[in-house]
Specification:
The longest helix is centred in the middle third of the chain and has 17 residues. The model has no long low-confidence stretch (mean pLDDT 93). Helix 2 packs parallel to helix 3 and helix 4 packs across helix 5. A hairpin with a 7-residue loop joins strand 11 and strand 12. 42% of the residues are buried. The chain has a single domain, classed as 3-Layer(aba) Sandwich (Glutaredoxin). Helices cover 24% and strands 27% of the residues.
Length: 301
């Protein structure tokens, strides 16, 4: 008996799965340009010098950095020339840092480990952010099917800023875009909406539509901020500050202050609950429950 093929992003959209509150926490990202086909497990599956590979892995783990393989849209495995690497660091002041270099052999990646182990190195600030589009088809089919058209549309507009990348989390929200080191996740994108979202972001305006969350915030805080943006309008990335977080079981009270330089306070009540078990990825047949953070009220303090 023939069964219909399952696509996790289609199922999530049919269910109306909630985007806000789903961005993974993170403040540091390591980008490694890699032209050959990406293994299903990304950097972990690369056939590199074991010593150099382990050195970078341990350095990244020590600072909770995420290692992502990257490539330009349309590039092929045989592309010549040195490949690039980057360490991107989020900064709460907005003075995000980027450090870039090149590598040809696995041993060259030791330089990335040196950078990660010396966080005092200033790096460059004031650079435009990097726009990362998950197109990791070997990890999840929807990431490729929905991600590649988005990568193409964005690359056509911002060729120097846009990279395809390996798994960033949340396959069912494909196409996913991570803007780093700003630390902003967007999901549920297509070619047209991605251009509009990134254009607004680069202009200093984060809109609640398609926003999964800020990576320096925890899920309940992400949901609270997205709700305030949806009700009161878009704002700059650092316009709001979380000035209070209290929890009683599944109930959270999040206080946001802003947008800067305003001191207006917003008290946002958030309730967390788990969904029934569902298949959340294309390739994983096991079902699991997802945590949802629902905003129940917003009060101006």
């Amino acid at each position: 008996m023939r069964t219909e093929r399952f696509f996790c992003a289609d199922a999530a959209r049919a269910r109306g799965d909630t985007l806000p509150g789903t961005a993974p926490y993170g403040l540091v990202w390591v980008l490694v340009e890699y032209h050959a086909p990406w293994p299903a497990n990304g950097y972990d599956g690369l056939a590199l010098d074991p010593g150099a590979k382990a050195l970078l892995f341990e350095a990244a783990r020590a600072v909770r950095a995420r290692i992502l393989l990257i490539r330009r849209h349309g590039r092929r495995a045989g592309d010549a020339g040195p490949r690039r690497w980057a360490v991107l660091r989020y900064d709460a002041t907005g003075a995000h840092r980027q450090q870039w270099g090149t590598w040809e052999r696995g041993e060259d990646l030791a330089r990335i480990a040196d950078v990660l182990e010396a966080p005092g190195e200033p790096g460059e600030t004031g650079l435009p952010p990097v726009v990362l589009v998950c197109t990791h088809g070997r990890h999840d089919t929807c990431c490729a099917l929905r991600g590649r058209p988005v990568a193409g549309a964005l690359s056509e507009r911002w060729a120097d800023l846009v990279w395809e990348c390996t798994h960033v989390g949340g396959d069912r929200f494909a196409a996913n875009v991570l803007v780093a080191p700003d630390g902003v996740y967007y999901g549920g994108l297509d070619a047209a909406s991605s251009v509009a979202v990134v254009e607004r972001h680069l202009a200093g305006c984060v809109d609640a539509e398609h926003l999964r969350g800020y990576t320096d915030l925890f899920p309940a805080q992400q949901a609270a901020l997205a709700a305030v943006l949806a009700r009161y309008g878009p704002a700059a990335r650092h316009a709001f500050t979380v000035t209070g977080t209290t929890r009683a079981g599944p109930h959270w009270l999040i206080r946001l202050t802003g947008p800067a330089p305003s001191t207006t306070a917003y008290d946002v009540e958030v309730t967390a609950h788990r969904t029934p078990p569902r298949q959340l990825t294309c390739n994983g047949l096991a079902t699991s429950a997802a945590m949802v953070h629902e905003v129940t009220s917003i009060r101006v303090g």
